[in-house]
Amino acid sequence: MAAASSEKGPVELCKGINGLDKVVLREVRGSSAEVYFYGAHLTSWKNEHGEEMLFVSSKAIFKPPKAIRGGIPICFPQFSNLGPLEQHGFARNRVWTADKDPPPVPPNSRAFIDLILKPSEDDLKIWSHRFGGCTLITFWLTFIFSALSFSDLVFSSYEFRLRVTLGPAGDLMLTSRIRNTNTDGKPFTFTFAYHTYLSVSDICEVRVEGLETLDYLDNLQNRERFTEQGDAITFEGEVDKIYLSTPTKIAILDHEKKRTFVIRKDGLPDAVVWNPWDKKAKAMADFGDDEYKHMLCVEAAAVEKAITLKPGEEWRGRQELSVVPSSYCSGQLDPQKVLHGS
Ligand code: BG6
Fold first, then answer.
1. Is the CB of 216 within 6 Å of ligand 1?
2. What CATH number does residue 104 fall under?
3. Phi, psi angles (nearest 5°) of residue 159
4. Mean pLDDT of 135-152
5. CA 134 to centroid of ligand 1, rounded, Å
6. b/e map of 185-202 (b: 16 or more CB within 10 Å)?
7. Residue 131 — φ and ψ, nearest 5°?
8. Which of 205, 296, 313, 341 is packed most tightly, with the most Cβ within 10 A?
9. Is 56's C-beta closer than 6 angstroms to any atom of ligand 1?
10. Catalytic residue among 195, 209, 255, 320
11. How far apart are CA 44 and CA 62, in angstroms?
């Protein structure tokens, strides 16, 4: 962690909602970000004009064990309910700590925080693997065989290091490093997502570029595989898709706000796109009935092929978010420039 102080420096440790500990990162030009130790959860990312880029529900419950609704929850060691664990795994509802042994810090970094999560005794009991499978099928087989023979369970010990950095231009970088620390020689397997809730003016005015023509698994149709047709993706109803093997850059164009989010990712081949729309919004206690109009989740993820780590091995997955002004409504923006430019 960089220098922490009670003054408004680049890294401020303070209390958030319900007295939960959080860190506020600030850059000189005025951008900021907030990270809760609960879940290592990003709950705010503001540009230099103080405008919020992330969506957090007005009904979000900042109280363990419920994960905070909005911002950037971390889905680990399991994305969704595709496996034996609770939906989206347990990292998002554990209390993380400051990492006292962080990876080397690049020169000139000021506004960043290093957090770490290690398994508790209870986590070791619930996350167990007999095989180091590499697909969703083997993930499930692991569960079934484990359930049949609990005496043979192999527990998965890990260190999960997360660095959150706010760059000088207000870009937000999240880097996860997950290491297998098993001492019994056994590999373990996990799936992962940065479940990023972007704040948008009106979901009907949003386009996503970079996922067209790709294959996806449709969560609304038993995860059947389809190929995206047509041009950019727009929204007229509920969507819950896992796009497979996507490019490393995805652009989300907000027509009304005239701004474009750019997601760059590394080590995370898939991308999940989710909006619950009206019916599911009403069914969620921690989400306002109309809030679906003002959010879109685009999540850098590793879902289709689970990641397997042998003891001593480390995996790295990175998501970088930036915002560029756009004038798409006047037809001036060339999405290819956003996607393929530096
Ligand atoms: C998305 C999933 O990532 O998260 C959806 O694709 C899920 O299927 C959504 O409904 C929200 O999940 P949760 O557990 O935060 O309500």
1. no
2. 2.70.98.10
3. -125, 125
4. 47
5. 22
6. ebbbbbbbbbbbbbbbee
7. -125, 150
8. 296
9. no
10. 195
11. 14
